[in-house]
Design goal:
With 384 residues, the protein is mainly alpha-helical. It has two domains: 143 residues, no CATH class; 199 residues, Rossmann fold. The protein is built from 18 helices and seven strands. It has a three-stranded parallel beta sheet. The chain has a two-stranded parallel ribbon with strand order 4-5. Strand 2, helix 5 and strand 3 form a beta-alpha-beta unit. The longest helix is centred in the middle third of the chain and has 17 residues. The chain starts with 6 loop residues before the first helix and ends in a 6-residue tail after the last strand. The model has no long low-confidence stretch (mean pLDDT 94).
Amino acid sequence: MTEKKNVLELLNLPKEVKFCKNCTVSNQRPRISFDDKGICSACNFAVAKRNTDWEKRETELKKLCDKFRKNNGEYDVIVPCSGGKDGSYVAHQLKTVYGMTPLAVTWAPCIYTEIGRKNLNNFIESGFNHVLGTSDPTITKKIASLAFRELGDPFQPFIYGQQNFPLRMAHAYDVKLVMYGENGEVEYGGDMKNANSPTRTLDDHDKYYYKGMTIESLKKYNILLNELYTFSGPTKKEMSDKGTEIHFFSYYKYWDPQENFYYAQKNCNFEVNDERSEGTYSKYASLDDKLDGFHYYMMFVKLGIGRATSDAAHEIRDNKIDREEGKALIKRYDGEFPKKHFDTFLHYCDIDEKIFFEIVDSWRPEHIWEKQKNEWSLKNPIWK
């Protein structure tokens, strides 16, 4: 029997579920905060964005590019990019508008989808130099299965590589500027200390993305250091000695995921999926990996916040839909089981269906879920 997890303590969640009065996100999102009017930090940040002097920010971006531009044909900026809408937008802007010479860097998904690989190829063929990082699949599978049990998230090996491989490539190619797309902590609601900063530190990097399971800690699960090297990045000292800087494009340019999609579609031949993604209503976000759906499903299990909740909340903040529309979309799609790739997931993590659901239920916090007539349901859904 799988041991029940104390999710409240592990994730430091409040016992009483409250929803933002403007969007659809709840206070169960880690590190999010609410003001005295019941408005979440992400919504307040969205208002601040609309009042930001973006001409001034673009001047800062131009100065940053001037600082790092090499003008000799060598790469002068690393852009982490899966071939999705956001990375495509950032890379294309830096190359065509700001005169940089980007090297696009991709950490391969655990299991590529057909549309994910097609979009990556489309992006490269639209005019970019590119490096693809892959790892020993036997180790990746082992970490995914381990993380599913220990973190309630099989996506962790991808997170390691996605965050660290671009930094490793920056050092390999002697590039001092790494330009990520959005700062998810502030765009989606989290620790707001970098809300008005274009950068983040490696300490933030570890805090937000490792969830208490550092790469070094994997040694106790009989995974060797040489097997983990591919997933690791440079140390703080190495970053400092090299003068490597991490920046977010969303600090310099108004960030709108839907507009990024239109831009990438026009300039990098980005294609939408033929069908909506399970658990939400959109067809153009997080299309690359067959494990994506289980990452979002487990977020729903642990927090009561699924993919549709996150998508709707962002679109409310961007004035694309209103809150009532968001609530209706959440009621219809949030928490939908990702059945399309279920058999593939079981095989990948080397578990059977019984063990899968034992692990899932071990991560259901009692303050969010109740079981009636042998079915789980949310105690306080937003639509009631």
